[in-house]
Amino acid sequence: MMAMRHLDAFHRTGYANQRPPGLDEVCVHAGLPVLGRHTASGDAFTTGQLFLWMCGRLRVRFGRQLVAGDLLK
User: What is the pTM of this model?
Assistant: First the structure.
């Protein structure tokens, strides 16, 4: 998951039972509103909003435009 790779708050700890963060947790961390949770359109919109927020953070971190491979680093 991108949040575990790129957000310090959710990095892997090595704990065997660590679960990935949920959409709600990452949105709270990002300060994004969660709209229409548990509906197809609401979850899709919220996920898209979060994706764009994370891409913006990565662009600033890398200091350049993103390429597809940056999302997997």
Answer: 0.82
SS3 label, residue 14: coil
Where do the DSSP E strands lie in the chain?
none
Q: How many residues does the chain have?
A: 73
Q: Which two tokens stand for residue 11?
A: 């990095």
12-71, pLDDT tens digit by residue?
888 888 888 999 999 999 999 998 899 999 999 999 999 999 999 999 999 999 999 888
Q: Which residue is it, tokens 């991108």? A: 2
Contact 54, 6 (CB under 8 A): yes
C-alpha distances in Å from residue 65, one per residue of 34, 55, 61? 27, 10, 10
- Token pair 């700890």 is found at 13
| Pairwise CA distance, residues 1 & 71, whole Å | 10
